[in-house]
Amino acid sequence: MNAPYDGIDFHRPTQTAKDAEYILQALNARRVAGGGPFTHRAEKLLQDIIQAKRVLLTTSCTDALEMAALLLDVGPGDEVILPSFTFTSTANAFALRGAKIVFADSRPDTLNLDETQVETLVSQRTKVIVPVHYAGISCEMDALNAIAAASGSVVLEDNAHGLFGTYKGKPLGSLGAMATQSFHESKNITCGEGGALAFNDTRYVARAEILREKGTNRSAFFRGEVDKYTWVDVGSSFVISDLLAAYLTAQLEGAAVAQAHRKQAFNRYMTELAGVAAKHDVKLPTVPAYCEPAYHLFFMQMPTGAHRDALIKYLRERKIWSVFHYVPLHLSPEGQKLGGRLGSCPVVESAAERLIRLPFHSTLAGADQDRVIQVVAEYCAKHV
Ligand SMILES: Cc1ncc(COP(=O)(O)O)c(C=O)c1O
């Protein structure tokens, strides 16, 4: 008998063959706190993928961003330029340190940080520029790095969406001084909750180890470099359990299968929705020729906000789960307290109203994808 039809999930966490085996290995080794063998193994795997000089696992991408803000000594009087079209954590890390958040608009094609806007917003007080590679498609990193170099600011990539993507052949996460990663269950690979801070500039590493370990030189102690460990700097508890690092190790080792599936599903949406998009003024993602996406998510922009809301409802009535993405930060209640106002980021304001994310994950079945495509086409034919 067939299982009752319960619809098409928007998302499912990626699973790999070894998730449970490695978690059990960590349990049986009785080595479940941070800094254990799986932590080192996952950090090395990530280092190779990102081609970073060093990677430190953290409890989340949010924590990696907060660690980066501490490392860069961001404080009152400093300005941080970031896209309005991002998750709250990108801004929180710097708002928590008392910096001024400067929201930038997005490019209309990729919806990424608009480098021409950044050029106009940069000032002597700009300490950090934070590109977010939306959906795993790269920002214009050459231009952003040039602006940062000219202004003496630091580029920190919020690479929550970008693991496995590339820009001009270089891995996303290897293009700024530092990059943050997320392994939340919504990401391409996961350990439930987790993150990492990757370093391309090694000057930050020694202090980062201390900040991550509650302000102590515990890492140096375990390497035998000091004979006792003590409080040497500010810090917090950003270390991930080896149980979660074991889960992440399995995911990193099994990522190729998940990525191949996501690439195929992304390209299928692109090909099979192209006709509908052209006919009904629906915008599919733009992928510059020199970018390989990370295939994190699939989105479309409907011609109007009313159509976006109606399509989400139309899909839901057919048990297909889709979602909107990012309430622009500059228009959020907290963003407005920080000076955000309607009209200051018109591209983001329009895109956020019209954007819909379709079901997309590492095991999306072909038949389910067919159904999503068919229902989107049906809605557009009837209503747009
Ligand atoms: C762009 C971006 N940055 C940061 C985060 C925060 O990640 P985490 O949940 O690992 O803290 C997210 C979460 O979705 C995100 O989309």
User: In the residues, how many domains can be counted?
Assistant: 2
Please tell me what the overall shape is.
globular
CATH architecture classification name of the largest domain: 3-Layer(aba) Sandwich
**Beta-strand percent range:** 5-15%
What characterizes the major β-sheet?
Answer: 7 strands, mixed
Number of discrete helical segments: 15
How confident is the prediction overall: mean pLDDT?
97
Quaternary structure of the protein: single chain
Cα separation of the termini: 39 Å
Question: Secondary-structure element sequence?
Answer: HHEHEHEHEHEEEEEHHHHHEEHHHEH
List the defining traits of the structure above.
384 residues, alpha/beta, Aspartate Aminotransferase, domain 2, Aspartate Aminotransferase, domain 1, 2 domains, 7-stranded mixed β-sheet, 3-stranded antiparallel β-sheet, 12 strands, 41% helix, globular, binds pyridoxal-5'-phosphate
